[in-house]
Amino acid sequence: MTTSVDLHTYLTARRERVEKALREVFPPAWGIPSTLRDAMDYSLLAGGKRLRPILVLAAAEAVQDDAERASDRAMPFACAVEMIHTYSLIHDDLPAMDNDDFRRGRPTNHKVYGDAMAILAGDGLLTHAFHVLASAAKGGVPAERVLAASEELAMFAGVFGMVGGQALDMEGEQGVTSLGQLESIHLHKTSDLIAFSVRAGGHASEAGDDQLRALERFGKNVGLAFQIQDDILDLTGTEEKLGKPVKSDERQEKVTYPFLIGLDESRKRVSSLTEEANEALLGAGLSDPRRLIEIAGSLLNRDH
Amino acid sequence: MTTSVDLHTYLTARRERVEKALREVFPPAWGIPSTLRDAMDYSLLAGGKRLRPILVLAAAEAVQDDAERASDRAMPFACAVEMIHTYSLIHDDLPAMDNDDFRRGRPTNHKVYGDAMAILAGDGLLTHAFHVLASAAKGGVPAERVLAASEELAMFAGVFGMVGGQALDMEGEQGVTSLGQLESIHLHKTSDLIAFSVRAGGHASEAGDDQLRALERFGKNVGLAFQIQDDILDLTGTEEKLGKPVKSDERQEKVTYPFLIGLDESRKRVSSLTEEANEALLGAGLSDPRRLIEIAGSLLNRDH
């Protein structure tokens, strides 16, 4: 499946709206120290697919007929997710962590601003994400829903979610041997934030519990498929397309899906997870799950 | 002013309740990776004065007659503040930041768990603070109040608050020359989180806007006095009492209040700020501001 013209138009339009909103998350009047502001903007406004915030908007639109209104209401959640994702990349790239010099074809944050400012930029983005998220209440999302989203963001991005997955990954460097271990790391490191993204969109559109559960199942499966595809692309992709060195997993002796079960099996797993993701959406009474299904499909055959 | 027996009893009782609550912020069933959990607990359960969480409880009790109920409702906010404070210490102590080896008489987090795990432990505590804070809704605090507290925590601890102050401090290492600059750093680095603490207590007891403003003014002044007293103690205190090396500011060539205006003037400033703090509470229609005033007084003459 390739990205249809229609989906391409949709993704471009949503990405542009996300970019615009991200440029406005720090009110200029509030006087953030300039180096800190520059360091945060350097990574937050570095482009990228904006997959997670687009999934927030697409999920909100899947629940509610009025797509414009749904994505407006969900935008603070979309920005918060991207801020969390960005902070995690900044901290992961630090010398003490993965020690990466390049990200999206540019020097990593600490290479430009130094380790101390990169740590602060990450802390700042992480903290301010909760401020931006809370502003959804001003856009008409009921306080209970905003609070639920805040609590869930802390869980899916925190010690039981993304941060926990990162810690598992570090512990695992002493030797991941089973697929179960690897899957647990990926589920937390990557899937949890994607699962949160679609749940958050659901909350913005006041989805019912069944719909939230269906969205979460979709997100977990898509997130795992996405991570396996990343492992595959690290082996088979080109540096030009990816904007980062290829075969870095091999060099760092990371245990990946292709390493454990081979390329073919890894590709099959991406397909079956994508199918499971889409199945989760059927029968959940969503107003229109088409975009979410299209996005999941487009991730299946991506080359970057 | 010295700590009265009565105040001592109060502080001990509240500290014990805070310690108990802090031991329960991570539900055991949720399966946090053990090294991460250990690293977070190492710093979170390291004792200390617990000034910020006690101020949360005391502010809640100042607004509401029923002290037991007030402090129960405010406890999630109290824990969240201490988690934020703890994460900031872990990250500040990192080699890339202040490079401190000891804190409260023990090796710092990264000396025990390594830099990478210390970064993650900080990220985990910071993120989970918002989860714990949100749980106040289950204790009967209205969702709107919990959401307001969450938004304020993100602001006072974030890029306009504590993280911003830290960045200002780093920029200032190239040369703070004026009292205004130094005060701005301290206000953000230290006062903001203390101002949040008393506001959060106010929210837990559904304080009115005037009361919240009075509590915030109290907190800002107490926070600044507290920081100046820290500068003074670094010069005049003993390593045994402080649990960390003295005169570290001098060695690190940090610009402090005593450096800029001398010891005597610094001490006068602590007194006048404490008076201003207490004045802020009068006329705000608080049910009983006595404990807050006593706590501010006890900070004035502390030796650690």
From TrEMBL, chains A, B:
Cofactor list: Mg(2+)
E.C. no: 2.5.1.-
Keywords: Isoprene biosynthesis, Magnesium, Metal-binding, Transferase
Class of the enzyme per the UniProt entry, highest EC level: transferase
InterPro entries linked to this entry: Isoprenoid_synthase_dom_sf, Polyprenyl_synt, Polyprenyl_synt_CS, Prenyl_diphosphate_synthase
Domain of life: Bacteria
A Pfam family it matches: polyprenyl_synt
Record bears the keyword Magnesium: yes
Keyword Repeat annotated: no
GO MF annotations, alphabetized: transferase activity
Similarity remark: Belongs to the FPP/GGPP synthase family.
Protein name: Polyprenyl synthetase family protein
